[in-house]
Amino acid sequence: MAFMAYKLDGDYYVRANVCPPCRSTSFSLDGDTLVCDSCGTRFKASTGAGISGACVNYPKAEVAHKISGASVTMEMDELVTAYENTLNPGWP
Q1: pLDDT at 15 (0 to 100)
Q2: Exposed / middle / buried, residue 81 (Cβ in 10 Å: 0-12, 13-18, 19+)
Q3: Which residue segments constitute the domains of the chain, with CATH numbers given?
Q4: What pLDDT score was predicted for residue 88?
Q5: What is the Cα Rg of the chain in Å?
Q6: How much helix, strand and coil, in percent to the nearest 5, is found in the chain?
Q7: Is 4 helix (H, G, I), strand (E, B) or coil?
Q8: CA atoms of 53 and 16, how far apart (whole Å)
């Protein structure tokens, strides 16, 4: 399972880092947009919702997390759930 973490407008996000149709596990943050480094599909960084591109129906699920100092912690079941949700088109 691959994940990404980033800071946007003062908030931290952790999301599943997978684009099932094109099999990418690499995204870039372009302003307030996540861009798949393989197919170029664009997602809203604040929600993970698809904006445009071939894999737009596979939103990036957020992982519940806690920030403590310089550490980000997550529960394993939250990681698994977010990853599995991202593998399914159009979750919830």
Answers
A1: 93
A2: middle
A3: 3-87 (2.102.10.10)
A4: 87
A5: 12
A6: 15, 40, 50
A7: strand
A8: 18
Q: E strand or H helix at 68, and its extent?
A: strand 66-68
Which residues contact residue 20 at a Cβ distance below 8 angstroms, ignoring those fewer than 6 apart? 55, 58, 86, 87
Alpha-carbon span 36 to 40, nearest angstrom:
5
**What per-residue confidence (pLDDT) applies to 46?**
95
Residue type, 80: V
Q: Which residues of the chain have pLDDT under 50?
A: none
Tokens of 64: 């519940």
Question: 38 and 25 in contact (C-beta within 8 Å)?
Answer: no
CA-CA distances (angstroms) from residue 11 to 7, 45, 55, 67, 89?
Answer: 5, 11, 25, 10, 26
Query: Residue 25 in contact with residue 18, Cβ under 8 Å?
Result: yes
Q: Tell me the CA distances in angstroms from 7 to 11, 12, 18, 37, one per residue in order.
A: 5, 4, 19, 19
